[in-house]
Each structure stands twice: as structure tokens, then as C-alpha cells.
């Protein structure tokens, strides 16, 4: 019968002695480019990913009007209403103001109990304005005003 040799590595890594760590060969690190030789305004070396950037072309005023009409129709579908509009800009309002006359009458009929609801609504219920505009490239820009 043969004795196991101390120099052999067991087949199961979990039963391997702690000191036996297999060596791993890592790929070499890429060398850093030498930026000391570059001059201002010269193209810089580096990897190129895909096609070069081409700025978008400006679109006609008719295409901008159409894009604004589509943007406004989506805002109106969400419950907004158009307050003002030009060829490339629009102000869309959502929400509503509190009807203070109605709440005053209800408060008087309920001997002041409705005043609590009225105060809460006065702080919570407000109009929200959004500016929708189309830039010269046909992109829709939305900006919350209030």
C-alpha cells in the first residue's frame, strides 16, 4: 500500500491546505498615453466608438409647428389646457383655483365647520403652469413654471 505524497494537490479545492493558492496570470495593464507631446487644438488619441458625432440639422417651421401640436395634444390629454400659444411655444395649465365664493357660502351654511376644508384646499389646490417649446432642431422642451 502506498502512502499519499505531501506534494500532491487534492482534487477538491475546498480540501486543499490554506497555503496552496493557485497562481493566476492576469493580462498586462495597458500603457497610459503620453500626453506631454500633445498640443492644444490637436486631435487626441483614444479609442473611437461608433460613428463620429454629427449635430442634428435644423427643421422647418412647419415641422416645428407640427411637433408643438403633438406635444400640446399629449398635455391636453393629461388634463391640461392651453393658456397661450405661439408658433413654437405654448403655456399649458393643469389644476384649478379654489372657488372661494362657493366655500364661503358652504362655510356660512355649516356654521364654520367647512372652514377647515376650505383652508386645506386653499393650500393644496393650485394651478401648475408648464412651458412647452420646440427648439430649432425639433426637440420638445418642457419647463415647469409654477
Structure report:
- This protein has about 150 residues and is α+β, with helices and mostly antiparallel strands.
- It has a domain at about 60-145.
- It has helices at about 60-75, 100-110, 115-125, and strands at about 80-85, 90-95, 130-135, 140-145.
- Strand 1 and strand 2 (about 90-95) form a beta hairpin.
- It is flat and about 85 Å long.
- The model has no long low-confidence stretch (mean pLDDT about 80).
Largest sheet: 4 strands, antiparallel
The tally of helices reads 3
| Secondary-structure element string | HEEHHEE
Shape: flat
Name the assembly state.
single chain
How far from one another are the termini?
A: 90 Å
What Rg is obtained from the alpha carbons, in whole angstroms? 35 Å
Q: Which strands sit side by side, in order, in the main sheet? A: 1-2-3-4
Quick one: how many beta strands? 4
Helix content: 25-40%
Structural class: alpha+beta
Strand content: 15-25%
Mean model confidence by pLDDT: 81
Unreliable stretches (pLDDT < 50, length at least 5) are: none
SSE layout and pairing:
Layout lengths: L60 H17 L3 E5 L3 E6 L5 H10 L5 H10 L3 E7 L5 E5 L2
Antiparallel strand pairs: 1-2, 2-3, 3-4
Kindly summarize this structure in a few lines:
The chain is 25% helix and 16% strand.
Amino acid at each position: 500500500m502506498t502512502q499519499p505524497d505531501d506534494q500532491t494537490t487534492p482534487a477538491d479545492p475546498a480540501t486543499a491546505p490554506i497555503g496552496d493558492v493557485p497562481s493566476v496570470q492576469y493580462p498586462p495593464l495597458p500603457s497610459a498615453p503620453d500626453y506631454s507631446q500633445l498640443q492644444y487644438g490637436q486631435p487626441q488619441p483614444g479609442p473611437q466608438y461608433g460613428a463620429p458625432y454629427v449635430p442634428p440639422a435644423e427643421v422647418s417651421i412647419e415641422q416645428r409647428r407640427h411637433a408643438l401640436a403633438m406635444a400640446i395634444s399629449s398635455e391636453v390629454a393629461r388634463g391640461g389646457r392651453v393658456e397661450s400659444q405661439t408658433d413654437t411655444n405654448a403655456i399649458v395649465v393643469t389644476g384649478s383655483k379654489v372657488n372661494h365664493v362657493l366655500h364661503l357660502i358652504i362655510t356660512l351654511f355649516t356654521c364654520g365647520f367647512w372652514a377647515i376644508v376650505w383652508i386645506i384646499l386653499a393650500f393644496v389646490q393650485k394651478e401648475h403652469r408648464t412651458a412647452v417649446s420646440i427648439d430649432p432642431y425639433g426637440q420638445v422642451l418642457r419647463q415647469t413654471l409654477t
